[in-house]
Amino acid sequence: MSFAVNKLLRIAVLDDHALIRMALKLQLQSVADFHLVGLYASSGELISALRDTEVDLLVLDYQLQECDLDGLRLIRLLRNKYPHLLILVSSATETPFFVKQIIDVGANGFLGKSQSLDDLIPAIRTVASKRLYLAPLLAFELHHPPPGAAPEPGADSSMLMNLEALSPKENEVLRCFLDGLRITQIASKFSRSIKTISGQKQAAFRKLGIRTDAELFKVQRRLDWQTTRQAPPEAEWGPGAATGQAGAGLEKCHKASTVSASHTCSRTDDAQDRPQGSLPGEVAD
Prior knowledge:
The protein is of the alpha/beta class. Helices cover 35% and strands 10% of the residues.
């Protein structure tokens, strides 16, 4: 349903960066008909809160911490469990192929992190009125995709076609590997065995016609068909995962701003530890 002016729109925010949460909080609380019901730093906090908190619209950071459920997996879970929840996704990756996958799995809009903060309120109002929100240039590019990039001199042009043969899981393994994660770390992130992850990596190598890690890094730049920015389709790793076309474009598997090795994946939201006057799910980073 769309929301009338005289009805408060209940909004939740999920982002793992404290500064971004604060900026969004200030922006949202300045709007009279918006009611910010919670700020959450992890998908676990959000999912727990949704059990007893009514939310109309979620502003969702696409990529969270390495140990957290995020990406298309999280969007699918939320769409299946809360079909009426409106989801506005935000990401630093803004390539058309990447955004198309987000919309295809059920997001109601996409707000690129290169956009002005002033675009947040119009984006939320567009989504709340049951219309798809996309920046004008991105909407144009989705309907008018650029021609495929020409292969570099000496490159195997069949590789660009073979990218479409990659499964979502194979694509996900490659993007994590290119971002510097070891096989053991990738296996831990997606709760899969080392043997399974290694097998998916080798299957991707065969489809791309490469044999070594060095060859993969040499062709990394050509794995994005739109720009030099990286854009992955997040894999669905759970039981009954939907298979889909894996496209070119590999996003960072975890953010450069992730905390040190001493960081633990669990965060507490105990009322005793929460600063007085803070919103549910808001944590002090």
